[in-house]
Amino acid sequence: MALGLPLLGLLLCTPASAASTSTGAMAFRALRTGPGQAEEAINRLSAAAREDLNSTSMRLLAERIGQAGAVDPDPRFRRLAAQALAHVEGGEVMLLRLAADPEPSVREAALPALLHRPVTASAMPVLQAALSGSTLTTAAVLLARMGDNQGIPLLAEALQKGTAPADNAAALASLGAGEQARSLTLGLLTRVESTQAGVLAARALGCADLTPAVVTAYRPASAPVRRQILDLFASMGPQAPKTVRTTAHRALLDPSPDVRVGGIEALVAFRKYDKSVRYRVIDALVDPDPRVRGSAAAALVAVGDVAARDELYRAGRDRSQGVRRALYAA
To answer: Taking the CB of residue 254, how many other CB atoms lie within 10 A of it?
Structure first.
C-alpha cells in the first residue's frame, strides 16, 4: 500500500527508536506521487532540521531519506536526497557520491552542502572533475581549502568569458589566493565584458591598490556596472581618494538616473561637503527624474545643510509623491 504525505508527517514526529531504515526508505518512495509534493516534503524536513538541529529523530530520518534517494534512478529524487543530506552529520560519503552524479542538477545540490563539512583528500578527484559549468565555483573553493588552487584561474577565465555568473567573483576573495586573486581581478577589470565581475571581486578583496583599475573601468562600463562601482566607492567613506571623489562628481551628469543617484549617495558618504558638492546636489533638485530629486533632497537633510532651506521647502512641494516621501523620510 502506498504511503502518502500524511504518513510522512507522522514519521517526522516519530522518535528515532520507532523509525527503522526501511521505514525511512518507504517514506521516501511514497514521495514519488509527484515532484511538487516531494519538494514540499523535503523543504518541510529541512526546515524542521534547521529549527531543531539536535533532534536525533530528524537527523536519522534525513539520513534515511538521503540514503534511499542517493540510489534512486530518478535524478529529481537524487537531488532532493542531496538537500536532505545537507542536514545530516556525517553524510559526507553519500554527498560525495552525489557530487559525482552524471546529472548536473544533482551535483549542484550536493557540492554546496560540502562547503560546511570536513572534506578529506579522497574527495579531490571528485572536486577536480567538478571544475566546470555550474559547479566550478564551489569546487574551486573546496579545492583551495585543501591547498589545490587549480580552480582559481579556471574561475577567473569563466568570469571573463561570462560563462560563470558575475556574482561568483566574490569567491576569489575567499580562496585565499592573495596576489593571484588580485592579479586575476585586475584582468577582469580590463575587459568591459567582465567589469562587473571585477568590481565584485575588488569589493570582496578590499585591496586599495585596485582602486585605480576600478576608476579606469568606470567610464566604458554599462550603467548598472557604473552604479555598482559608485556603491563600491561609497563604501570607502571619508578615505576615498581624490580620483574616486572626482568620478562621483561626474556621475551627477550621467545619462542614467540610477547612476546619478549613486553619485549623490557616494558624495554624501565621502563626508567632504564643500561648495562644489553642494552646488551639484542642489542642481539635482531640479533633475527630470524624481528618483534623483528625492535622493538630492535626502542628501541635503543628511548633511544638515540649513542654508538650503528654501530649496528643501520647494522639494517638499514637489509634484512627485516619491520626492516628498524621500524628503520627509530623511
So the answer is: 18
- Spatial contact of 96 and 123, defined as CB atoms under 8 Å apart: yes
pLDDT band at 266 (very low <50, low <70, confident <90, very high): very high
* Chain center to CA of 312: 37
Q: Which residues contact 98 (CB under 8 A, 6 or more apart)?
A: 70, 78, 81, 82, 85, 106, 107, 109, 110
Give residues with Cβ within 8 angstroms of 261, minimum separation 6.
227, 291, 292, 295
DSSP 179-230: HHHHHHHHHHHTSGGGHHHHHHHHHHHT-GGGHHHHHHHHTTS-HHHHHHHH
Rg (CA), the chain: 26
Q: State CA 183 to chain mean position distance.
A: 22
For the chain, give the mean pLDDT.
Answer: 78
- Which of the residue ranges 46-60, 104-118, 209-223, 263-277 would you say has the lowest mean pLDDT? 46-60
Angle between helices 56-70 and 5-12 (to 10 degrees): 140
Phi, psi of 274 (to 5 degrees): -100, -175
